[in-house]
Amino acid sequence: MRRTDRERDEAFAKQVVDKAEYAVLAVTEADGQPYCVPISAARHGNCVYVHGSYEGRKMAALRANPRVCLTFVGDVAVAPPIDAEDLERAKQSGQPVGSYVSSKFTTSYESAVVFGTAVIVEDEAEKIRGLRILSEKYTPDNMEYFHLAIAASLDVTCVIRIDMASITGKEKA
């Protein structure tokens, strides 16, 4: 990581993973072409679960090369607009106006990057566990009906477990 002053520890990175609304999964297709796709993802320990269809571009790429990278973005805040009164105070204080203005062309953010290996989950109990972890993150108010969703779609839903090899976190406050 080039900006080591923004690097955060593993615990911070896992918190970003846990609260991120989505992730971007990067894979490499059989011909070497990179491909990335936004996904819903939920972490349990050192594994990240995702789900989808058994077919499609993502699945073909995972079968060809199970090594993946996931990017998560947590809280983001764009700098507020330039305030004329603050700009005038900066001028009067002798503060370089350019420094004040340039501080308004930035974004605060937090992110996490995971490298790992994707495994298509075959074991039914683990598939259900992975779907439960995803559902508890994204639809916690519907968990009373989880068993009905499982009964209706377990056979056609592919669950992928990504075993984390490494995770890094970054923050610009």
Question: What order do the SSEs take from the amino end to the carboxyl end, as H and E?
Answer: EHEEEEHEHHEHHE
Using DSSP, what is the number of strands?
A: 8
Within CATH, the superfamily carries the name: Electron Transport, Fmn-binding Protein, Chain A
The average pLDDT value, as a whole number, equals 93
Name given to the CATH architecture: Roll
> In CATH terms, what is the fold-level topology?
Pnp Oxidase, Chain A
Question: Quick one: overall form?
Answer: elongated
Strand % is 35-45%
Radius of gyration: 21 Å
Keywords:
alpha+beta; Pnp Oxidase, Chain A; 8 strands; 33% helix
What does this structure look like?
The chain is an alpha+beta fold and 173 residues long. The chain has one domain (4-81, 109-172): Pnp Oxidase, Chain A (Roll). It has helices at 10-19, 57-64, 84-93, 97-102, 124-138, 146-153; strands at 7-8, 23-28, 34-39, 42-44, 47-52, 67-78, 107-120, 158-172. Strands 1, 2, 3, 4, 5, 6, 7 and 8 form an 8-stranded antiparallel sheet that branches. Strand 4 and strand 5 form a beta hairpin. It is elongated. The chain starts with 6 loop residues before the first strand and ends with a strand. The mean pLDDT is 93.
